[in-house]
Design a protein that fits this description.
single chain; alpha+beta; endopeptidase fold (from Nostoc punctiforme); two-stranded antiparallel ribbon; 5 helices; disordered N terminus
Length: about 180
């Protein structure tokens, strides 16, 4: 019985990934403005930000994250077999997709990545929340269409949430990108 459940979960993940790939091929991503007048708390001019090596890696981050849906949560978790926390999930995915390593906590990742205005968030960008009364205490990967994927807490599994969810909307701190400048 357990084997048939894991096959069913695998089939569901593969189907979801295929559907997303097909939808992505039909969609257009709006151009990000070259400059922004929006203030950014952690922004530093001409800084050497972490960036993905290839443009298509941002979309691959989303696809990889979808493959981790229903993975169990574990505080400090850095891989799907043991369980993942929010920053562990993001760090793991970035390393699997690009071969590059990010810091292991949400605040460290926020410090190393370039801020983007909320209106210019694209799939593959990172979204940050203040869920513990301190800046950048939770994070996820933006999927597009007002949704993000994250590892929520010890009572949950990797899942998709809406950015306008009352809980997360009230705690949203900003978005940061892994895309190179320019």
């Amino acid at each position: 019985m357990a084997r048939s459940l894991s096959v069913s979960r695998l089939e569901r993940r593969v189907g979801l990934l295929l559907a997303l790939v097909l939808l992505a091929g039909c969609s257009q991503v709006p151009e990000r403005p070259a400059t922004s007048s929006a203030p950014h708390r952690a922004s530093t001019p001409s800084r050497n930000w972490f960036a993905l090596p290839r443009d298509d890696h941002a979309q691959e981050l989303v696809l990889y994250a979808l493959g981790l849906l229903d993975t169990g949560y574990r505080f400090g978790g850095k891989n799907p077999e043991a369980g993942l926390d929010c920053s562990g999930m993001v760090s793991y995915i970035v390393e699997q997709v690009s071969g590059k390593k990010l810091p292991y906590n949400a605040a460290g990742i926020a410090e190393r990545t370039r801020p983007v205005p909320a209106g210019a968030i694209r799939p593959g960008d990172l979204v940050f929340f203040n869920t513990l009364g301190r800046s950048y205490s939770h994070m996820g990967i933006y999927m597009g269409d007002g949704k993000f994927i994250h590892a929520p807490n010890s009572r949950g599994k990797v899942r998709i949430e809406r950015m306008d969810n009352r809980y997360f909307a009230a705690r949203f701190e900003g978005a940061r990108t892994l895309q190179p400048e320019g």
